[in-house]
Amino acid sequence: MRIATLIPLSLMIGGITAPALAVDRGDTYLGGGFSMVSYEEDGLPDAEPTALVGRLGYGVTDNIAIEGRLGFGLNSDDVTVSGTDLDLDVDQLAGVYGVAHLPLASRFSLYGLAGFTYGEISASVDSTDLSVDSDDTDFSYGIGAEFGATETISGYIEWAQYFDESDYEVTGITVGANYYF
Asked: Distance of alpha carbon 78 from its chain centroid, rounded?
């Protein structure tokens, strides 16, 4: 056989026989990531504060985990509303989610998540003591991809819809890493 045929064939066979990246029953993992949060409200300019989000998960069966998350704002975003500068910040995010993995290849899987999120945001008028705090709880969902760097460390990228209310929505794109015990 020609080398040009052997290399793709060996990669395909290796991908089929190699263990795929997924959560196994009894796996515990701890991770964290940097999140670009998007806050969109009717009649207001979009705000994009940033947050750190930590996660702790446990594999309840093969490819399915339950996960708790806790996050807090890193940087606020300034928006101008009717000539007034507002500073929007994520005070905290907390949630519980079911996460289902679809292993596709050695060290790579796609996943979906669904659960509930509690969040607090605040908006303050620059150079004053005026501020408004708001909190909410909502059904949340998202998708992501996870890739194994080593046997115990993986990286991930994820999109999540945290809040989807009639007059506003909050989404996040997160990049981070997990450590498997």
From this structure: 23
